[in-house]
Design brief:
The structure is a homotrimer of 268-residue chains.
Chain A (H helix, E strand, L loop, with lengths): L2 E6 L7 H12 L4 E6 L7 H11 L8 E5 L10 E6 L2 E6 L5 H6 L4 E4 L15 H14 L25 E2 L5 E8 L5 E6 H8 L7 E5 L2 E4 L1 E2 L10 E5 L4 E6 L4 H5 L6 E6 L2
Parallel strand pairs in A: 1-2, 1-3, 3-5, 12-13
Antiparallel strand pairs in A: 4-5, 4-6, 7-8, 8-9, 8-15, 9-14, 10-11, 10-15, 13-14
């Protein structure tokens, strides 16, 4: 089995994604290619960085994850190949791997420089086809990652300055909306363990959430634990606090934007 | 061969679909996973109910069809597994299977309760990943459906109150628009057999269609049987009457909405 | 290995694409089906004609490419099967194959008339399912193309009148925007060899580009070779001149439309 996943900002209106798949299958006819999404807003590295952590662990070990969100294509930015937890990642060295590199024990990172593996001539505008696809296909066939290029230290990979949740001087947990999904659920950067640290032995039902001028009381366990068209706070499927609207769209209800603050406190 | 199809309201901008596929492939590496659509409007059970009947018969027997349009995720709604015509279906017990259950002879329906097959811990917000995916993967590997949980009677599954076409006291056949496709074709709930019942021995060319204040004469056999930019009535590929515009978009032309009435009569 | 690619105007909101795949897999369970795009604007033959040339060569020989952009479905337009460069194409005889037929040496073209291979009854509104899918599946299984129907001459296939770049009486190379991709890059019909013919021994850096009232100096080698939010001219990954905006959207910046002229000259 060899699985290759694709996370890009290519959209689905052009032939870019199909072309990448053609190259992968030309090299590894056995590859199963799975689309994660191609709808990352053009060049939105932060969104891509957060999304990577959510899906990859649900694939079998050995999967090759290609991350092609690459505003610097054709410049001298490096391309990295990473091995961690039995999974392989290919991505530009532009910070898009920040959450992955921060969360996991990395086995190996190499800079992809072995041009013999590339598709020639290498265009300077479409490395997805000419570099990512052939190298990803080789990884999916089991090539040793160290053949791709020289090892580097994880610390030397570029990081985005992602805002982390913190405790205010009043003891509130302060986070931010980092994503909005198709349902309008507003996903924050606060994970369940941070909520537990805030609660200690108190019940989750004593939590209060302030967001966009609204106050929500108690942490729900599922989307139906508020009245219809009422907002609720819940830990979503990927382990992060999100604000939802039962039967509706919380982003529209709250008029929420990426980056908006959320404050969590224990009801006094 | 083991095919798994996906019909969801997940959209394609997030990692939800990819994550479901990762779980399926982790359990059944041989599965071929086919997207039907992920663009069902959030929680639009009626649209999903109609669409299921259109595609499933075109897949080989043994295919597992996962229907994940599930506003009640995490509540106590059941999840059903259905075997009919050699196909398997997994769906919430929320009425989304209404047309399927009404049209076909059902072999078996079970309530999916065998938690040993689930992904643990089971989140209360993402059963697509934690219940549907692992159970669907097991079905695609050939597990006996009765291992999933207790059998129930088809009558005990929840039904939507879908409006059916009827004859008015003036002898008109009255139906409604139940879907609009990408081309703007307005698809009704009137099937070809209902038109035949109306016509008896008369020609389809004597039919008249009233919709959104417009009158269309005669049933066309294909989209080009009206003048360019003129409306026409035709039986679409899935066997239902639809109103189209030759070379254009009938929904926009008619300013039509889901639920709008269509009246069909024999020209006097 | 048997790969089938799909280029359609079906969109992704309906079950049309999934149904086509079901039919293909019913006939050839081994087929790998790859989506190129389903977002061709309804019935936009010109866009489809240009896009075909960009992706197909990146697939392995033997791939079957189905092109279902077919406003004349159900009329008496023919369906063509083409073999060229080891690849197979199925498309309506409506001009959508124009660039393919003009660029390549065609081995064989046949008119698809062998109704024994079709799905019966053949609807007059969904040949994608009833003709393209079963015939494409047979091609992917290795059926001899000449079994599909009678050979025709390439000259007898319908051609679109695609505008070609030309030299003005002032010696400028005059082309047009023929596509806009997801990033807002404006793709022209001028290929690299035309630029070389214009430059002769001059440097690409002496080229000047006039488009939508803006003048761009020099041909860049990658998207980062302009200041941020400044326009640039570059040969894109598929070999055609395109106008991009570094870090932004050139279409919006230029207020550009498909069909807008671009004039290229040597700086005097």
């Amino acid at each position: 089995m060899s699985i290759v996943t694709l996370l890009t900002d290519f959209g689905i209106q052009d032939a870019y994604v199909g072309t990448v798949k053609g190259v992968v299958l030309s090299i590894n006819p056995e590859a199963k290619i799975i689309d994660i999404t191609h709808q990352i807003e053009p060049q939105n590295l932060v969104r891509a960085a957060y999304i990577i952590s959510s899906y990859y662990k649900y694939f079998p070990a050995g999967t090759v994850h290609m991350i092609i969100v690459d505003p610097g294509v054709g410049s001298d930015r490096a391309i990295l190949a990473v091995k961690t937890m039995g999974h392989f990642f290919l991505a530009p060295d532009n910070g898009v791997l920040t959450t992955l590199l921060d969360e996991d024990d990395i086995d190996v990172i190499v800079r992809v420089e072995n041009t013999r593996l590339f598709l020639h001539p290498v265009s300077r505008t479409f490395h997805g086809r000419d570099v990512f696809a052939p190298v990803g296909a080789q990884l999916s066939k089991g090539i040793d990652i160290e053949i791709l290029g020289p090892k580097i230290n994880s610390k030397d990979a570029l990081r985005l300055q992602l805002e982390k949740p913190h405790f205010s001087k009043h003891g509130e947990l302060v986070g931010a909306i980092v994503g909005v999904d198709r349902f309008g659920n507003c996903i924050t950067n606060i994970d369940e363990s941070a909520l537990e640290a805030l609660c200690r032995k108190d019940s989750f039902m004593r939590l209060e959430f302030d967001i966009c001028g609204k106050r929500i009381k108690g942490l729900s366990r599922s989307y139906d634990q508020a009245k219809p068209q009422h907002p609720l706070a819940v830990v979503g499927g990927f382990g992060y606090l999100e604000i939802a609207l039962n039967g509706g769209n919380a982003k529209n209800y709250l008029n929420a934007q990426i980056g908006d603050r959320i404050r969590v406190a224990i009801k006094s």
